[in-house]
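REVIEWER CHECKLIST
Item 1: Sequence provided? yes
Item 2: Single chain? yes
Item 3: Sequence as submitted:
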Amino acid sequence: MKTFEFWFDFGSPAAYLASTQIAGIESATGARAVWRPMLLGGVFQATGNHSPATIPAKGRYTFVDFDRFARRYGVPLRYNPHFPINTLLLMRGAVGMQLRDPGRFPDYCAAMFRSIWVDALDMNDPAVVGRALHQAGFDAQALLALSQEPDVKAALKAATDEAVARGVFGAPTFFAGDQMFWGQDRIEFLKEALQ
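Item 4: Structure as written out by the authors:
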């Protein structure tokens, strides 16, 4: 079966929007998504890139575009007043779920994206993260402990290093084979590459 990679960080509104389209991409192309969590802050640091939000006019316009895409996709999106979110804990949780409980990994990802980009929660606060996890049916203490395990930390660092080595500079980034597609607004190009 054909596959494509979806490199993401929960702190990216574009990655959230892209995540809502994964099932449609799979249905349209017959390819299966391989979800690849990475730490966007680490990618930015390694590549010298910055969030569009660091340039006020560009940041405002980008969120206007995100609202347009949310309406086109028929999905909810709220600007998070706590943005940017330090996602280190959340992304370690994603890697930990992939390693320890892959069957619940999709639920974890949906809960984290929803908490930031639909509920607009302050996911910089570990207590808020704990409540969001509990509300989504997860054992918050177990997941917080999992995020501190050395192999989980190492796996997230290795994934982020791999992303940078492959040319990733932002989120979301897709790969179809060796072809890279950056941004949720390039999904149609990804679909063409997967046909």
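Item 5: Key structural point noted by reviewer: The domain at 3-194 is CATH 3.40.30.10 (Glutaredoxin).
Item 6: Recommendation: ____
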